[in-house]
Amino acid sequence: MAKFTTSDGLSLHYTDSGSGLPILCLSGLGRTGADFRYVAPYLDDYRVITMDYRGRGQSDFDKDWRNYTLAIESRDAVELLDHLDIDRAAIIGTSRGGLNAMMLGQIVPERILGVAFNDVGPEIDPEGIKDIMAYLGVKPSIRTHAEAAAILPDLLGGFIGVPPARWMEEAETHFVDDGKGGLNLTYDAHLRDAVANETESPDFWAFFDDLAGKPLCLIHAAGSDILNDKTAQQMRRRRPDMIYTNLPDRGHIPFLDEPAAVTALKQWLDLIQ
Q: The AB hydrolase-1 domain covers which part of the protein (predicted)?
């Protein structure tokens, strides 16, 4: 199990597989690097790196939940690249990971080869935030992975035609046995406090514009409650060269192994090479 130590002493989990052009995969708010397991087989010509943010998955939880911020998460990502002696990398950013990608474009622009946004943009739909806050940091009342798999389609919304086996895999990934006959979260529940008290308000549209000259890709779920059509259209107007695909029958967030998503990512990577 690969770990590295941040400048403030936390041990963070990461994976590093394959060879070739480095792709750093940054996950969503309460998620982990395991989110990228579906797309990984389609990226076997590349060096794929994932990271569990502090307070998530197999990484250390921070004693101070106020450190669960985009600025510190982005700093951790830079320190992981330094740890791996990677000068430049492409970024696939899922949800919050896309915001971190734009932060990285400000912190270390020379190290970012391009960004693929998985259902996220410079503006987050307020309704999506409400939906997330309804369950973020709340210990599940369900007691088995089978129960979790049964409720995930309704909890997430926008997904149609996803086989039960995929929902079971999602349940087993995002909920762990609490040792008391129930399930628990795979992240620090104090992440809710961090989001509720977040004071950062950077101009992400300016950050997005500052990615000029770098290949971009946007994978947009048709049923997303995070990335609305207005924001996606504005992104496309500002960057008409951006690879774009809209995924029917998907909500937030797409799995990334959908054929159209895989095609878009490969088109984007061809631009980087």
A: 23-264
Segment (H or E) for 246 = strand 243-247
pTM for this one?
0.96
Integer Cα distance of 222 and 59 in angstroms: 32
CATH number (3.40.50.1820, 3.40.630.30, 3.40.50.300, 3.40.718.10) of 2-125+200-272 reads 3.40.50.1820
Strands 11-17 and 2-5: antiparallel
Classified as helix, coil or strand, 21 is: coil
Burial class (CB in 10 A: 0-12, 13-18, 19+), 35: buried
- pLDDT band at residue 200 using 50, 70 and 90 as cut-offs: confident
Domain segments of the chain as ranges: 2-125+200-272
Check residue 62 and report its DSSP letter. P
DSSP string across 250-269: --SS--S-SHHHHHHHHHHH
Q: Pairing state of beta strands 175-177 and 47-51?
A: unpaired
Residue 1 pLDDT > 90, yes or no? no
Please say if the pLDDT value at position 141 is more than 80: yes
